[in-house]
Structures are given as structure tokens and as C-alpha cells.
Amino acid sequence: MSRLATEFQRLYAAGPEGSVRALVLDVGRPSDWELLSAVWRGVQLELSLPAPGIAIAGENSYQLWFSLQQGCTQDEARAFLDGLKARYLSGVAAPRIRCLTEAPAVPTEVKEGQWSAFVAPDLAPVFVEATWLDIPPGVEGQADLLKSLRSITPQAWRAAMEQLEPAAVQDLALMPPSTPVRPSPDVAPTAATYSPSTTFNDPRAFLLQVMNDASVPMALRIEAAKALLPSSGV
Q1: Most buried of the four, 49, 53, 78, 159, by CB within 10 Å?
Q2: Percent of the chain predicted with pLDDT > 90
Q3: Phi, psi of 103 (to 5 degrees)
């Protein structure tokens, strides 16, 4: 096994029973290193996480690669990446962001004559006009870049998730309330009829309304229920 394969396995191989160890945040279309570098710095300064790997991914995008020392579930991985989006990328159009929970092959030829590769932080801005290499990157150089990266410990992971959760909840709470379903005039209201409030000063109250409102799409009701789990004990 090559040094590059060994380092990639150390950082990003799936955990026990297929648990997720590689979390990749892809932002681009068009590419904007200044935008993603704010995330790269923020996770280190504000969340106390080790520096994620940086990749030029072709398709006019950059990627941040996070490695977990111990695996997590798909739901936890998505919650982490959604938290990053809510905290650092709330103003970015959704089609520009991709969240990956399986490590794609890097380096690889994304298109003919365009190779993805891991890059050093000081070189990332150089590729803003073309987020790829014209030739395959050196295997030893790629291995050296990965060798310097560290995985997120379980303690750091839990602390980061606690900090990201309020941002994700706030992002959901800022969604406009749905229009309640009005009963037909021919149907008399019963004691079980749900009458949602229209003004919320408490995000938790808003989430409870979303979770219990039958007129809200089921996917949003499920997300509201997930957001309430830590505080409600449901």
C-alpha cells in the first residue's frame, strides 16, 4: 500500500459497521476560496477543531475534508454539515453547497485533463480560476499533505455539535410558519382540532408547532422533532 493510500485510510476510511468518518463540505459553482476559507478558519478558532483538509475538486469548487477519530451515524454527519451551513454559509444559495458523507476518490481525473487534489492552505487561493490540476498530482506530495492532518476526537466532536446545534435550530426557526389548514364549514370543530399560534418568541415553541402541524410537509415535521430531541427528551 502506498503512503498516500495509508494516510487516506487513516483519516477517511469508514468506521465500524460502516459508520461515517469522512465529512466533506463542497462549495463552489462558482469557486470562492475566500468564502470557504472563512469556514476553514472558523471551525478551528470557534469550534476548536483540527484543520480540515482542503481539496480542489474540479467543477469550480473547493472542498473541506473533516476526519473523525471515531465514526458517527449518517444523521449525525448530516447534522454536523447542516450546522456548518447554518453558521457560516447561511447566505449561500443551496445549489452551490454539497455535503458528502462518503469520501470521494482524491486525487482523480474529474474530467479529461482536470485532476482533483489536496492542496496546502497557502496555495488554495491560486486555484480560484481553475479548481483542478492539468496533470496528476505527485503521490508523495499528497501523502505529505494528509500526514499533517489530524482526526476530530470524540470529545471535540461532542463540543462542536453542542455549539452547532443552536445555529441549526435557529435556521429552522427562521422559516416562515406554514398556513394552517382551515376546516370545512360543514365540519364542526372537535376538541382535537389544532389551533397553531402565529407569533413566536421561543424557538422551541415554534418547533413544537411545526412538529404537530399536519399541514406541514412530513420531512419538515421530522426535522423539527429531531431538533427538539436533546431538550425534550422525546
Answers
A1: 53
A2: 68
A3: -70, 115
CA distance 49 to 40: 10
Go through the chain and tell me how many residues it has: 234
Q: CA nearest 62: which of 119, 134, 109, 143?
A: 119
- What number is the average pLDDT over the span 42-52? 98
Q: What is the pTM of this model?
A: 0.72
Question: Residue 203, class by beta-carbon neighbours within 10 Å (0-12 exposed, 13-18 middle, 19+ buried)?
Answer: middle
pLDDT in tens, 22-46: 999 999 999 999 999 999 999 999 9
Q: What is the pLDDT of residue 190?
A: 38
Query: Following CA atoms 12, 121, 135, 106 in sequence, which dihedral angle do they give, to the nearest 10 degrees?
Result: 10
Helix (H, G, I), strand (E, B) or coil at 178: coil
- Amino acid letter, residue 5: A
Q: CATH top-level class for 3-154? A: alpha beta
CA angle centred on 66, ends 90 and 105, rounded to 5°: 110
Residue intervals of the chain classified under CATH 3.30.70 are: 3-154
